[in-house]
Amino acid sequence: MKVIAAVLLVIFLFLAAPAMGQQPPSFAGKTVTLVVGYNPGGGYDQIARIIARYLPKYLPGSPTVVVQNMPGANSITAANHVYGARPDGLTLGAFNRNLILGQVVKVPAIRFDMSKFAWIGSPATETTILAIRADLPHRTPADLIAAKEAVIVGATGPGASTYDFPLLLKALAKFNLRIISGYPASGDIMLAVERKEVDGRAGSYSSIKPFIDRGLVRPIVRAKASVPAIAQLPTDESLVSEARSKAVMSLRSVPEQLGRPYLLPPGTPAAIVRAYWDAFTKVTQDKEFLAEADKAGFEIEYVRGDEAMKIVQSVLNSPSDVVKIFQQFFSFN
Amino acid sequence: MRDRNAFLFSAGIALVGLWALWQTEGWAIKSWLYPRVILLPLIALAVAEAALTFRGKDGGSREGQPAADIELESTVDPALAVRRTWLAAVWILGLFLAVILIGFQAAVPLFVLAYLRAHREGWLLGLALAAFSALAFHGLFVYLLHLPLPPGLLLRMIGR
Amino acid sequence: MIEALLQALVEVLRWDALSFMLIGIALGFWVGLLPGLGGGTTLALMLPFVYRMEPVQAFAFLLGMHAVVATTGDITSILFGIPGEGTAAATILDGYAMSKKGEAGRALGASLMSSLIGAILGALALLLAIPVVRPLVLAFGSPELFMLAILGIAFIATLSARGSRGMLRGFLAGCLGLFFAAVGPDPQAGHLRYTLGTLYLWEGLDLVPVLVGFFAIPEIIDLAVRGTAIAGRAHVGRLGGVFEGVKDAFRHFWLTIRCSIIGAYIGIIPGLGGGVAQWIAYAHATQSAKTPAEREGFGRGDVRGVLGPGAANNSKEGGALIPTVAFGVPGSSAMAILLGGFLLVGLTPGPEMLTRHLTVTLSMVWTIVLANIVTVAASLIFLNHLARLTAVRGSILIPFLVVLTFLGSYTNNNSLGDIVVMLAFGALGYAMVRFRWPRAPLVLGLVLGNIAERYLWISVARYGASWLGRPIVLLLLALTLGVIVSSLLQQRRSRVQPKVEAAAGAG
Asked: How far apart are CA C20 and CA C13, in angstroms?
């Protein structure tokens, strides 16, 4: 019943959109609030603050854009809030990319449906890689599969790419890994790599890159989403043959294509959504913006809302056997 | 039993410990090991403390004195002290209630004004300080920091 | 080295860097004073301004701001009993007690002077560590971190109360703190523990709302009960007071130095977090009491209880820069944001910071020192006016103090849950003071419990049982035993001379 209602709603919105979108919206004199699901300081907050400074230039009417931090429960709190906000284009949210997976594994606290948000899209991707200490002999995935002694990988915990990525490689691609979890943050794992407590770690390419450049670790495998610099690395999916394994790995990595999701409340008029699409398109082509984002280590690549929605739909429609396997590995925390 | 409240406090802590222990039922070892290791001594100590208090041993005036902690006022008449304590608690909870009902922006100056008036400060001082608190609050938390402030239940009910 | 040091000083003293530093200091001054604003958050908010700055300018600005936050955070703790920063809570116990005796000026002077000494020592530690930084930081693996947490927890014995009954209450409070540390996801599997069905507790208890409620609420209630000004009827010491406090820092010079070293060491080790140093330093300060009478003075306005944490929470900043600079691994949440600042101005933290970019690193040393000198000098002018706030009628101050506790906790997660936690711990804190359970062990347990659990699992998973034989682990084990034995001995001494009255107090 709920599904039918949802489908009808989506159809209605699509039909109604052109009618409502006659008048180009203007935000002149208004204040747009960008709700970030984390406290100041992290990546989600940092890129939101950069975007918030460039948005006024490209939104019709040059509104004031303020960033509001609403941390809690890995941004579920903020997403629940934006889901119920007035769909007037004056409230938008930036949340954890894994919320979509949280919905797939049915986290009870989630009171929203990712496919009903009006998606602005994602201005940046995240590339997950596995990197191993450079003084070890292992250079390729084959080396890690054939390794006599288990290679020790440090991780934070379930639900983070530092843990899930090597776990799937171990379980599905038969890498000889031993995962030590419990480190408080990725920096602490890096330090453990440095003092040879662990042999390597997985995580976002941008955070590991300085250590690759310094010669401490070398990248071995990457996930699907990628940047040119490491495009030649083998992907995790290429290392498994079974279709279901591929699907599970793909499911894990899908949110990384939508690395920094930006959403408007459900029911936002199409004209407003379009205004945001245009504004984000222009922001992500702005030279100064690109320079700043590059300095801060973000991989800018705008996936527009309509494109993002297709990805979201495909995730939510994953076959139940894939979801079942996935659930054994993944926990949203 | 010399001090009923002290007994109830330590007994309450012991009960919280028991409840927490009961919660660990069904957890994986990685989750329960730490809480159980902590909770068993916690419960034992709390029961011991409660038992000693029950038998009227409050540790005497010297024994059991915190090595490094403040001491509450003891020169005020005990009855008055109890009344003032409850009153202070009510004021603090009152602000909490006001924040929930009418939101921070209205609750803060109102609280300042009401408190000052209830303690026989003049209207002029009360209004001036209330205005100051409202301004400082708005300037810092609304204008500068853009905190998300809940609008208050009452205000939401009448349609913001 | 000396040449580079001078060159760095010249760079910091250039007008542009210097003016950015002064702006940073002015900001940090207020951020420290206001309980609602944390150093880390403010750093994050200021980050966008450094995009176009030179590295030396950027760090003069960011570090100048960060270096003074801990210094001025103590001021709020001393004057009102509300922790101005999460790292300034330990100063309340004796600092605010001094204010109640009319010695606010002296307490402020002592705290500022010890902060300055601490900051300089922290900067010195940063400087001295440069050649040996790699072995120094790398020596501390997960087993050592676990043992450090245990060593910290052992200080519960020091902070407990007198006699066997006092020990019982101290350990009870400590266990309670360790238990509260279990709230939130467990570090291994991420299973949510004791979240009471709320989203708010998903990430565990936030330290700041806990500390604000735990320490400020009992004091506010007590102030209401007394019905007087904070300083009561005592005459608020005027000019002499502040300089008396400054002199105190030199009277107990070695204590100040020792606590600075403690702070710097804790700062160097990433993973212990900013909240720990002040409490260990406080515990160490109480150990310096020679007689039981002296020991009872702690918590009732012994200036050493101000000097210890004051020195440690400043020296730890210099220490925390070491892993941030040398490895790109932040030693605290504020340092994590500072790390973002490094990348923005085009610097990659790592060994190069100690060779090619040595001047930038050394400019940080100077910034910490200069920022604290400026702050302390500027504060000395204000202090006497500030101290007079303790003579203002309680009925005028109380509403503001209550509002500050609310805002100070709300701004942590921008959630009403912050206020509920603050109130709950306020009630708990009041009950503990009322029934004479010491509060400090609970805080120690809370800040260390998670670290202990986390690194014990990692140590066992990684090394099996062999980690127990590592030399530093054994050394820390010996230190732990030393702490427990020495506090038991202190207890014993107090039983030998039970009749010594505390009437004279501990000056």
From this structure: 11
